[in-house]
Amino acid sequence: MKYDIVTLNEMKVVGQSTVTTNEKGKALTDIGQMWQHFLGKGVLESIKNREDIQTIGLYTDYEGDHTKPYRFMCAARVKENGNPELEERVIEAGKYARFVGKGQIQKIVGEIWQAVYASDLKRKFDCDFELYTNDSQDRNNQTIEVYISVE
Questions:
Q1: At 87, phi and psi to the nearest 5?
Q2: Domain encompassing residue 28
Q3: How far apart are CA 132 and CA 7, in angstroms?
Q4: In terms of CB atoms within 10 Å, which of 72, 75, 77, 107 comes out highest?
Q5: Burial (Cβ within 10 Å: 0-12, 13-18, ≥19) of residue 34
Q6: Across the 151 residues of the chain, what is the mean pLDDT of every consecutive 10-residue run?
Q7: Considering the entire predicted model, what is its pTM?
Q8: pLDDT of 108-142, one tens digit each?
């Protein structure tokens, strides 16, 4: 899968997070539960000052590479945090490898991450994120962009 290198400006996001690991498939369960709670319990709809309809899956606080624990956050981009009960994070400005896919959400996300793991990117393991554009009502026809922080 191809990617391009882009430079992003800083973004502020608000949401909820958990610490997880890729070991023994734990992240698949934890991240799925986070999304179910975030979307199913109305957390997303409660976020004030949202910049757009997009949602973000944010990976931060890596304790090493992708085999070590990290923090995952379900979030939305905001102009300013109007939700003191939710966590606020900053996606740092910088250089990112951008992977883009379109199709069924879980399938495309899985394919993109497999391409990331198979790539020769010099990852920073600093801040990576999935951008769900929400460009279609059809969950089988979504555009998803994954941004990987690179050196």
A1: -75, 145
A2: 4-149
A3: 19
A4: 75
A5: buried
A6: 96 97 94 96 96 97 94 97 95 97 93 95 96 89 96 92
A7: 0.95
A8: 999 999 999 999 999 999 999 999 999 888 888 99
Where residue 115 sits, what CATH number does that domain have?
3.20.80.10
Whether the CB-CB separation of 92 and 126 falls below 8 Å is answered with: yes
Neighbours of 42 (CB within 10 A): 10
Q: How far apart are CA 129 and CA 11, in angstroms?
A: 11
What is the longest distance spanned by two Cα atoms in the chain?
40
Torsions phi, psi for 134 (to 5 deg): 55, 45
Identify whether the C-beta of residue 67 lies closer than 8 Å to the C-beta of residue 23: yes
C-alpha distances in angstroms, 84 versus 14, 47, 87?
Answer: 9, 10, 7
Two structure tokens written together for 6: 């882009």
Structural domain tally of the chain?
Answer: 1
Size of the chain, expressed as the number of residues it contains: 151
Is residue 11 within 8 Å of residue 17, measured between CB atoms?
no
Contact 125, 29 (CB under 8 A): no
**Amino acid at site 83:** N
**Positive or negative, the Cα torsion across 141, 89, 9, 50?**
positive
